[in-house]
C-alpha cells in the first residue's frame, strides 16, 4: 500500500486569471507579439486544464477511499 504524500496546495478557484491584453497591430513586426500573446494564453489554458484534471482525480481517489472505508 502507498502512503499519502505531501503535495503542493491546490490553487484557489476564486483567484482571477489574468491574460495578456490584446495588442493593436500597428506594423508588420506586431504579428510576433500577437503570436506570443496567443501562445501564452494557450499555455495558461493547458495549465488550468491540468490543474482541473488533477483536482478531479484527487477527488475521485478520496471518494473511492471513503467508500472502501465504509465497506470494510
Automatic annotation (TrEMBL):
Compositionally biased region (Basic and acidic residues): 40-72
Stretch list, region Disordered: 1-72
Protein origin, superkingdom: Bacteria
Protein name in the entry: Nucleotide exchange factor GrpE
Lineage of source species: Bacteria, Bacillati, Actinomycetota, Actinomycetes, Micrococcales
